[in-house]
């Protein structure tokens, strides 16, 4: 239960961070049976699909390790489903991102990483 609460708190921090950057958050926890995108936001004709990780760096966290090939494939599949569901998004440029929330609630935003 503690891990779930930590993840939700991190997603809230990430949403606020994106809004401060000028993003409009469209979806939180956009889920399909085959995967999920934590936050989908829009900014300057870019549709940002973000994975949020709230992690203690003392545990040896390396951000790119969370976005292994399987996770990237699932995110792409969910994104393609979103385009089928909302065709108006088709003209937007996609950006797949990682948002790392540290134990001090610092935000590290890795944009367009795949």
From TrEMBL:
Highest taxon of the lineage: Bacteria
Pfam families given in the database record: UPF0102 (PF02021)
Database matches in Gene3D superfamilies: 3.40.1350.10
A GO molecular-function annotation: nucleic acid binding
Classification via InterPro entries: Restrct_endonuc-II-like, tRNA_endonuc-like_dom_sf, UPF0102_YraN-like
UniProt family annotation: Belongs to the UPF0102 family.
Protein name according to UniProt: YraN family protein
UniProt organism field: Leptospira bouyouniensis
